[in-house]
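request received
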Amino acid sequence: MPEALLSKKNQKIVKDGLWDANPITFQILGICSALAVTTQLKTAIVMSLGLTIVTSMSNVIISLMRHFIPSSIRIIVQLTVVSAVVISIDQVLRAYMFDVSKQLSVFVGLIITNCIVMGRLEAFAMSNPPWKSFLDGLANGLGYSAILVMIGIIREIFGAGTLLGFHVVPQWMYAHGYANNGMMVLAPGAFFLLGIIVWIQRAISGYAESA
Amino acid sequence: MKFLQDTLHQAGKLFEKGRPLEKLYPLYEAMDTFLFTPGKTTPKAPHVRDHVDMKRVMIFVVIALIPATLMAVYNTGYQILLAKGLPIDPAQCWKLGAFKVLPIILVSYMAGGVWEVLFAVMRKHEINEGFLVTGILYALTLPPSIPLWQAAVGISFGVVFGKEIFGGTGMNVFNPALTARAFVFFAYPASISGSKVWVAVDGYTLATPLAVAAQAPRGSSAIEALNHAGFTFHNLFLGFIPGSIGETSALACLIGLAFLLITRVASWRTTLGCVLGMLAMSTVFYLLRGPDRLAFFNLPPHWHLVMGGFAFGAVFMATDPVSSAATNLGRWIYGALVGVLATLIRVINPAYPEGVMLAILFMNAFAPLIDHYVVEANVKKRLTRIAVKNV
Amino acid sequence: MSKMNQTTYTFVFATIICVVSAVLLSGVSEGLRAKQELNAELDVKKNILKAVQLAEPLGPKMKPEDVLKVYESRIQEIVIDENGNIVEGKKPKDIQESEKNLHPVYIYQEDGKVLAYAYPIVGQGLWSVLYGYLAIEVDGTTVRGVTFYKHGETPGLGGEIEKEWFQNNFKGKTVFSVKENKVTPIVVVKGKAKDVFQGEELNYHVDGITAATITGTGVTDMLDKNIKLYEPYFSKIRKNS
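response:
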């Protein structure tokens, strides 16, 4: 019996990626880029889109090939697929969003080494059909995106007083002695924010690491 | 006295389990034990029989800080008068200084206190007097011109990230007061570095001795540059110089140190370690001095001890019993490395005129590791002794 | 699969994967190359146009083709050697990595009249290498504008060099003192320039950034190096004008 597109099981796949097994807050993967590209919301969004596309696409591709991939070279094959997708995206960004790609610099290329992507391929796509793999990749990508966007918003507002480049902190606040928080622009600022988000998420979900 | 105690205990009943103010028990408990020796004894081992408990220890540190605080108030006022070119009148110094310094201390206590109480209530633990120390230590390390809201943001960060996330007082890896200052340092660098912030007069520019020595041209004499700017060893030692509120006077810190050592709150090993580390490192620089070297190299080692926040850091920050090393040998190593690192950052890194804060925080991270190896080494030594006996 | 030997299969599979992804990637790369090169070129040209302070500044939403058109009609690219002589037939993009003695100059003209000369400046700041362009008026001594377009300095401190207020400080300063007949590279002062210097000296000192002394020193050094590098060329311009 064919399974419904959004059956209970499939819903769980999505929920896992977004919340219960969120790649950043639960698995603590992809931290490097989460710290590096979130000084502005714009770069955070582009990076999120990039990663979401890469995880879902490569999940589908690997899932389609999963019966043919010789297990002895499966990691290399996964890496090749991921690299091809990532490099294509990087090229497109360079052609159509030059400013953003300049700011993202090497981090788009580094999606290749992002543990989330390889992790999903190895843990999910290798043993699941394409549609499920797509959902899994999408959910994990979006889970990653949600955190990045959150951090990006907070960092841009408090670090630069802008959001997507528009001034949101009113001028009179600066006139009365308000100052942008330099910590937010530095990587440690993102690190602390990430810590707080992990803290809150785990407090709500009641998850505790077993010793 | 008896009356006060009875009233308090009467009121205290309101805070017991099942009563209306149950959630605020930590507040009551703090008040009660702060004023009176607690009626309870520790339920589990170890029991140490001493009149001094945790609260008294912390109070001793606060007492030790009194000279530095008084000096802070006086010097802040003194610098203002000096900057404005007004005649120096002691009464005026006290008044102006108090107006600047007391709000900072108050804000530090209030903002930090709110978080302290919040966590105590949420996590159902007692409010710890450690905060009495953190609050004032932090305030004394800020420049007098710091905007109060930034001071409040800083201490909030220090209390939450420096202490509470590790599980509260006693569990913290880093010194909360320094964590708070480091936050302000990186978040609002314009308020805590440069030459405009050290005197609480708007737009008045005056470099600290550290900045003067760091920016003297290569090969020139650092002492000459300092003397030219009006800084002599004498007034650096006494502390009538611009700088962070409570850090300017090495003398005030020494008085505090004497008190801490008499009451045995601080470890003399840590402080002495810091001093030796700094002297050793600055001697190395002194020997390497030359015409194309930074002027800071040729500053005689003993000058380093009276500059910047070193005396304050070595006496009050590095000796923090929670975040420093806990073994005796460990304290030597820890202290010495603080001194070495502080000198390195101070002299070599042009971006950070003062290195004491960063050095102490850095070594805080290593203190448990140092202790681990000291204990391991000791275990090994004793094992060999047993082995010998068995043969 | 069972027919084929396992090892052979692995090799065949790997080969197919390689070929497919190689073809795909070269397709993407070829298809987008023109567009990418245009972007990189545009980035450089925009910064040059910003440094020379166009009579009509570029609009923020200007189309790439229009920017290029403005550039082409206003900017003439030349290459000079270490003696300030123009190297005929060479364009800035022809300069090889090894030709350390050749330097690009971008001449800004409006209706055939030369208005400014711009050249790239590079130097070490506190944490990072600073990149920018410096534009000199047609008299060969006065600064028309400066840009810093790439750096990794602390935001809010050294990072202020990318802000208008800092870059505007340089406008109208001079890099050559006619009176004393010597090069006067612009110096970034600690604090306000006019508190420290008066008269002639004020012409080549600019306000510094509070609490960013080292970045300021970096800018000073980089200007010193680059201004002296281009001095032979500008001394000729001064002689001719």
